[in-house]
């Protein structure tokens, strides 16, 4: 609950504002600031203010506000820059409170320059700090609100004095000063509310990350089950090879004996292909299925490990038996560090992993060109969207292994998301090995023409992308 006007009046009566000089302004977040003053008789003291929250208030600070209690803003805000340049060094020459109102005016003198600081401890969008010159022309504001005519160079006008329609009372008093009482009450309540809000946000973040990892495990386990019989393709190829003399063109199938079981097995054939081509086709199926199986196995192990680590991590962070101040600091760090950051592990492009395969992503023409020149080799695979400009995605070659379909789909989704086709959520792509790319003479940076390319259609898979980028952000 915010302070009412009578409580603000009582707070002001205890503060040595008049005659104090402003030495430093500190903005803790978008709603709260500390003002460090010096008074010739009282010495150094700090005023804390909070606006637009359920705990809007002002009071002297007895206990220093540390980083653990109020996190610093990630970037210095415009208002604090103005304050440091124009308000610090000013002397408070007059303090005024609008009758029956939560509006406070501090008249400042900064070496002959007169400024007015209006502090509005209202609820919701009415809360603000407004700095005007002596003619009440706005110089800067904590919150710019053009719809209320609150912007630089606008004119601020004090609202007319209203009679008190509702009787406001000062809350039951303790034996300490009212400033100390408010600091203690709001510090505890605000801390608890902040903690509960942070817990909700971290729980939501945890649920999202754990769900992605659980879906990854489930998806890859399905792939494992689907491909676990990959060795059967090699056996069929071996049987066909041993019986190649029985194969003729235009055969749709053949029944041959499995020498291990002694049973007759039915083998489908491509009637348009020669015997050698049909044998090669089954060996190719074996290599692809084996590669997909091994990649899925690596993904399952990686996802299970990440899932276990994440569960332990969040279990520790969300423990209820922690000191509140330290818990708040940990939760704030978790939310800050948990933002997906596209930081890179090399100077050019993104580096991600799909199972045992490494994926390199160029996000613009310069990165595409740099990757082509210095980070890929002839046997690596290249993907790019058809008919849309975008980044290049490369799959690093692994000797004696065919690229599994899952890895190709991972790379295709990345090529889609880093292209102008992103808004379409689907696209046609082509892919080929780097050795089959030809640079365009005197063409644009990174421009190439593919040869011996193959086509692949892809529809944006949010789960697949989330897994790739989440693993990258947490790497």
Could you list some keywords that capture this structure?
475 residues; 9 helices; alpha+beta; Helix Hairpins; ibrinogen binding protein from staphylococcus aureus fold
Number of domains: 3
CATH topology of the largest domain: ibrinogen binding protein from staphylococcus aureus fold
Taking the sheet with the most strands, its summary is: 6 strands, antiparallel
CATH homolog superfamily of the largest domain: ibrinogen binding protein from staphylococcus aureus domain
Q: Which strands sit side by side, in order, in the main sheet?
A: 12-13-15-14-16-19
Query: What is the strand content?
Result: 15-25%
**Structural class, from helix and strand content?**
alpha+beta
Shape: elongated
What portion of residues is helical?
25-40%
CATH level-two architecture of the largest domain = Roll
Unreliable sequence segments: 67-74, 340-346
The value of Rg in angstroms is 34 Å
The rounded distance between the terminal residues' Cα atoms is 43 Å
The SSE order reads: HEEEEHEEEEEHHEEHHEEHEEHEEEEH
Q: Would you state the CATH class of the largest domain? A: Mainly Beta
Question: Helix segment count?
Answer: 9
Mean pLDDT reading: 87
Number of strands: 19
């Amino acid at each position: 609950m915010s302070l009412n006007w009578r409580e603000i009046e009582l707070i002001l009566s205890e503060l040595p504002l008049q005659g104090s000089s402003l030495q430093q302004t500190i903005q803790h977040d978008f709603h709260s600031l500390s003002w460090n003053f010096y008074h010739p008789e009282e010495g150094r003291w700090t005023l804390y203010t909070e606006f637009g929250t359920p705990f809007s208030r002002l009071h002297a600070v007895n206990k220093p506000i540390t980083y653990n209690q109020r996190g610093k803003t990630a970037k210095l805000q415009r208002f604090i820059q103005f304050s440091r340049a124009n308000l610090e060094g000013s002397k408070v020459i007059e303090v005024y409170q609008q009758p029956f109102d939560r509006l406070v005016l501090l008249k400042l003198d900064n070496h002959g320059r007169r400024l007015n600081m209006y502090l509005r401890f209202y609820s919701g969008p009415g809360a603000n700090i407004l700095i005007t010159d002596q003619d009440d022309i706005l110089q800067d504001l904590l919150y710019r609100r053009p719809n209320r005519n609150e912007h630089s160079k606008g004119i601020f006008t004090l609202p007319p004095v209203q009679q008190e329609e509702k009787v406001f009372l000062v809350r039951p008093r303790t034996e300490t000063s009212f400033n100390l009482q408010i600091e203690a009450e709001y510090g505890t309540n605000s801390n608890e509310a902040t903690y509960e809000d942070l817990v909700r946000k971290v729980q939501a973040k945890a649920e999202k990350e754990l769900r992605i990892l659980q879906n990854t495990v489930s998806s890859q386990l399905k792939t494992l089950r689907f491909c676990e019989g990959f060795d059967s393709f090699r056996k069929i190829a071996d049987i066909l090879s041993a019986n190649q003399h029985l194969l003729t063109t235009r055969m749709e199938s053949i029944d041959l004996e499995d020498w291990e079981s002694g049973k007759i097995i039915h083998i489908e054939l491509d009637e348009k292909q020669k015997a050698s081509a049909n044998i090669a086709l089954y060996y190719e199926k074996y290599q692809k299925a084996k590669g997909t199986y091994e990649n899925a196995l690596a993904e399952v192990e990686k996802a299970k490990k990440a899932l276990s680590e994440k569960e332990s991590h969040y279990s520790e962070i969300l423990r209820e038996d922690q000191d509140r101040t330290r818990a708040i600091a940990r939760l704030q760090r978790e939310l800050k560090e948990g933002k997906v950051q596209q930081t890179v592990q090399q100077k050019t492009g993104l580096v991600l992993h799909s199972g045992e395969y490494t994926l390199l992503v160029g996000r613009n023409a310069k990165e595409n060109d740099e990757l082509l020149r210095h980070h890929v080799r002839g046997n690596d695979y290249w993907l790019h969207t058809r008919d849309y400009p975008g980044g290049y995605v490369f799959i690093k070659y692994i000797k004696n292994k065919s690229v599994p379909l899952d890895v190709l789909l991972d790379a295709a989704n990345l090529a889609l998301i880093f292209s102008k086709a992103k808004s379409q959520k689907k696209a046609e792509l082509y892919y080929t090995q780097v050795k089959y790319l030809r640079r365009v003479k005197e063409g644009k940076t990174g421009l190439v023409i593919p040869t011996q390319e193959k086509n692949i259609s892809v529809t944006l898979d949010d789960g697949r992308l989330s897994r790739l980028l989440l693993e990258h952000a947490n790497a």
